[in-house]
Amino acid sequence: MTYNILIAGVGGQGTLLASKLMGVVFMNKGYDLKVSEVHGMSQRGGSVVTYVRFGDKVASTVIEKGEADMVLSFELLESARWLPYLKKDGVLISNTQKINPMPVITGQAQYPEDIAEKLRATGVRLHTVDALSLAEKAGSAKSVNVVLLGVAAKYLGMEREAWENAIRSTVPPKTVEINLAAFAAGYTL
Q1: Mapped to the 3 state alphabet, what secondary structure does the chain carry?
Q2: For a surface tag, which of 27, 50, 54, 121 has the fewest beta carbons within 10 Å of its beta carbon?
Q3: Domains (ranges, CATH) in the chain?
């Protein structure tokens, strides 16, 4: 059996670090693992997506539409953009933060209203999190990714210690305590 996680965000939000931390945990647990990073215009605040697949034997790095067991979205509009990739019984975990894409910034479009409500109306299992507030309370707005990782870890049912060990071994030493606090904030929701 293979478990598929699609991580979606905007350039600079830490989607790649989140996938790296997941990879460390899953490898330490003895799973076969494939991670594929698909970059959009990440340097310009564009959409970034990473596929994380783990299980007994994983053949491909790609997640097709309708195959993701979990979509972990770092921004609300990205949740809507990547929803077609979620399985019918999958879970969508989304940060409530809104980051204006370039068409909104230039005035060519408006940021869609009521995205969370529209997502819920589709029947999707949606768990929204104000990860930015939790990250700021943990000590850094940059730790939104680790707050969301804490929420995802709880859904995945793996013990907290494995994730904390991955954080300690992966993030820069000066950010370990903030990232541990951010992870705990998400995990204990």
Answers
A1: CEEEEEEEEECCCCHHHHHHHHHHHHHHCCCEEEEEEEECCHHHCCEEEEEEEEECCCCCCCCCCCCEEEEEECCHHHHHHHHHHEEEEEEEEEECCCCCCHHHHCCCCCCCCCHHHHHHHCCCEEEEECHHHHHHHHCCHHHHHHHHHHHHHHHHCCCHHHHHHHHHHHCCHHHHHHHHHHHHHHHCC
A2: 121
A3: 2-131+156-167 (3.40.920.10)
